[in-house]
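Q: Convert this sequence to structure tokens.
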Amino acid sequence: MKASSSKISQYAPLLTIIGLAVLGSLALAVNDGSRLLFNRAMHAFMGLFLLQFSALKLFNVAGFAKGFARYDLLAMWWKPWGMIYPFIELGLALGYLAGGATWVYLSTFIVMGFGAFGVIRALMQGLNTHCACLGTSLKVPLSTVAVTENISMVLMSIFMYFSTN
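A:
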């Protein structure tokens, strides 16, 4: 029992961010107080989620970039990617909060899809490190949760692309 509660406490910051994004997206997606608009909720969720994640990275961009380069394939090869990434994530967040657009969906698909490959590779190699997804202030282990996040964002971006185009 203690091991599972320890695991939950490791992921508490991530669960809090996801929970706040869900609550915020539901609040923003209610139309005239009567019904929930699914597409609007999905845009709001992605926007709020990415906004919170980018904020945590922006507190210490250099520290994020260093941790990110441990497992991200592009950041390993091209160091500026880790310094640019939080701003790309912020741009995506604002794109979703503004209602989305083709460039937002395609960029999310590419950035998060490529990121998933780096996380999968690191996990297959047994890399024991913290996920840089929450910046340097919150420590969450790199795990299948990071893969799930990336793949979920890829799937949501595909859904939004086809539901709005």
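Residues 2-164 form one domain.
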